[in-house]
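Lab notebook page, bench 4
Experiment: in silico fold of construct C2
Operator: M.H.
Input chain length: 300 residues
Purpose: comparison with the prior construct
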Amino acid sequence: MKLSVFSCWHNRLHDLELSVRSVLDQEGVEFEYVIVDDASTDGTSDRLAAISDPRLRVIRNESNIGFTRSAIRAVTACRGDYVAVHGAGDLSLPGRLAQQAAFLDENPEVAVVGTRVDNHDLVTGARRTHDPRRGDMSGIEMKYTHGEVMFRRDAYERAGGYRSVFHNSQDIDLWLRMREIGRLETLDEAFYERRMFADGIEADAPRKLRQAVFSSLAAHAAAERAAGRRDPVEREGALALLTQPRTGHYRHRLRTYLRSLLGQRRFADARKALDSAPAGLLGIKQLALLLLLRACTRSR
């Protein structure tokens, strides 16, 4: 089989039909669609079971194991030479799968291909187009949003696949390893709509900062490999989170995120962000801001 698509779902029932249909309505290429239901409790399992399409295979986890381990399970079940990711609740726009598959056919040196992305904030209604090529595709700030990507299965396996240590930023870790095998490219057109929900990571300050910690680990592991040393995640497993050097990356991400929250007057979220940050990574100004935010949010 040429192409597999996978998604990992946990609840979010109300967005299921539109999102899944955007994949099943794709034309111009044959594919299978593998969905891992990560022990949903809101009726998602029953709704998936009611979809009658021979291309769809649903795998249900007996307990909630999280996105990374579900993604590993999904890719293991995929039979295609190419594998496309599709985020739960997002939309694959018409032509996406055919265009990405054709690009990989024509460019055998490319391991991963993304597309431009229409970011749709469902809380505010705001839309903006994201172009991964505007980021630093050679370092930590990998600009794929994850769901828009298609990759070669053999490159994924040679790179070692998703690693369960990464509860967040598992995609950044994977792309940094896959770029050692082949090129990472992006199509010119936006073929993917990333839908940003009220309960998504962008609205969750502690999760957003945990993402920064795991991103730092991915970058550290890539730097160690580039220097000819053994990957610390392979060497130490989850302990690598504790032994990675504390660079300025985390503080930079924290400062950037705080500016965004304060600009939106999301003072309670800014306090949560600072409360969740390791104390040793906070500077004098950030500690002073934390004390001020605690006082302000207590008085409300």
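Observations: The chain has a mean pLDDT of 85. The longest strand covers residues 183-196.
Next step: discuss at group meeting.
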